Amino acid sequence: MPSRTARAWTRPALLIVFFLSGASGLIYEIAWMRRLTHVFGSTTLAVSTVLAAFMGGFALGAYRLGRSADRKPERSLALYGLLEAGIAASAIAVPLLLRFTTAIYLAVAQPLEPLPFLRLFVQFLLAATVLILPTALMGGTLPALSRWLVARPDEVGPRVAGLYAANTLGAAAGTAAATYLLLPAIGVLESEWAAAAANLLAAAIAFAIDRQVRLTATDARAADLDTPAHEESPIPEAPIRLGISALIVGIALSGFAAMVDEVTWSRVLALVFGSSVYSFGMMLLLFLAGISIGSALFARMSGRPATIFAIAQAGNTAAAVGAIALIPHLPTLFLRGFPAVRESFFLLQLWNLLLAAGLLLPSAIFFGIAFPAAVAATTPAAAPGTGVGRVTVANTAGTVLGAFGAGFLLIPLLGLRASLTAAALATGLAAFVASRELGAIRLR
Q1: According to the model, what pLDDT value does residue 116 have?
Q2: pLDDT one-digit tens code per residue, 355-379
Q3: Angle formed at CA 294 by CA 204 and CA 81, multiple of 5 degrees
Q4: Over 105-141, what HEC string results?
Q5: Which of 108, 155, 355, 427, by CA, is between 20 and 30 Å from 145?
Q6: Which band of pLDDT confidence, cut at 50, 70 and 90, is reported for residue 158?
Q7: SS in 3 state form for the chain?
Q8: Could you give the CA distance from residue 161 to residue 298 in angstroms, rounded to a whole number?
Q9: Considering the entire predicted model, what is its pTM?
Q10: Which of left, alpha, beta for 63 (phi over 0: left; psi -120 to 50: alpha)?
Q11: What is the model's pLDDT at position 22?
């Protein structure tokens, strides 16, 4: 493990690095969503498919690579650098691979026309085949950096929350850049190359920091000034941790609700504002910005993280109910401001963003609080990579189900408002499960 001093001076640089990583990841996601839209021919179904494939690979990487980071904690920063370099290399290959999958899909799409669900499943399999490697590598980045930065139990929540906030803030910046600057100005392929350059820069910085820390440690040992072993070793967790299963279920429900919200709100905004591409980018920007704000807020909170998790889920449900009630009024609000902004693309997008923020941002902030709270409540300091990976797997498993459920079942069968109501019920159930478990713990 790196010394406490090494972790202290590397943390600001690594927050910047993880910001770059988050920005590149969302540029990829939006670019690949556009590519799949051209292949599959339906914006809602393409969004659901790419998000499900994206998050499925992400969960796989978080589970496998989180364990790898814990097995060799002193090399976790080098592992992170390798992951970033691997993301760049595999992402550059995605456009070429999509050409082959497109040819396969066009060959089977017509025979599968009478079997819509089988056709959609084929879409997912083809997308997952192309995206699984880069997304799995992305999934390992948070566990690897968490393993590097966390040494004591009281550091789990703040350190992971800080990393999560920086990453999602970068993702919000990447969303804005891709939607409003890169894709319109230079195109999809060039935007993917720009994202790969950001990954390579992040990898280079990580490798440089790792090398400097190792050289410093070598010099310290040579001078017999190295930090005593007891300061390097994490404080062991208590042997019994109660309530973990309830919080894991709760964070899975939270992931389900978040993805249902993302898919459904992108459709709602497209119907009102008139552009599915910009509506998707706007929805994603607001969700990511809110998650970053929520994570940063949790890093400064005191109290039991399990209790904070339950309160965040209950607050999310209340915010969602309020937003759903405002949907019928959204067209009227949009039209009131439209005459003043219709001559300016910038002002029109700003007006749309302000309207959407009032609906989406409160829930997104609660989602941002919930994830690091679940990590802090369930992760031992001795194995932060595994703990972060476990929560990420549960959360992303929920997002995969949410992506499929929203695009392929809830929206077609129930409609938009009922789909958003289902997401609110999921966060309410997460709050209920977590609060019941907390009550049971107090009675033991």
Answers
A1: 67
A2: 888 899 999 999 999 999 998 888 7
A3: 15
A4: HHHHHCCCCCCHHHHHHHHHHHHHHHHHHHHHHHHCH
A5: 427
A6: confident
A7: CCCHHHHHHHHHHHHHHHHHHHHHHHHHHHHHHHHHHHHHCCHHHHHHHHHHHHHHHHHHHHHHHHHHHHHCHHHHHHHHHHHHHHHHHHHHHHHHHHHHHHHHHHHHHCCCCCCHHHHHHHHHHHHHHHHHHHHHHHHCHHHHHHHHHCCCHHHHHHHHHHHHHHHHHHHHHHHHHHHHHHHHHHCHHHHHHHHHHHHHHHHHHHHHHHHHHHHHHHHHHHCCCCCCHHHHCCCCCCCCCCCHHHHHHHHHHHHHHHHHHHHHHHHHHHHHHCCHHHHHHHHHHHHHHHHHHHHHHHHCCCCCHHHHHHHHHHHHHHHHHHHHHHHHHHHHHHHHHHHHHCCCHHHHHHHHHHHHHHHHHHHHHHHHHHHHHHHHHHCCCCCHHHHHHHHHHHHHHHHHHHHHHHHHHHHHHHCHHHHHHHHHHHHHHHHHHHHHHHHHHHHC
A8: 7
A9: 0.81
A10: alpha
A11: 93
- Beta-carbon-side half-sphere exposure of residue 146 (alpha carbons within 13 Å): 40
What angle, rounded to 10 degrees, do the helices at 76-109 and 43-71 form?
150
Amino acid identity of residue 159, one-letter, is R
Instruction: Calculate Rg over the CA atoms of the chain.
Output: 22
- Pair 264, 419: CB distance under 8 Å: yes
The residue type of 34 is R
Residue with tokens 């400064």: 300
Q: How far is CA 56 from CA 160, 241, 425, in A?
A: 21, 28, 23
d(CA 85, CA 62): 17
User: Is the four-CA dihedral 222, 223, 225, 229 of positive or negative sign?
Assistant: positive
Q: What's the number of CA atoms in the CB half-sphere (13 Å) around residue 38?
A: 12
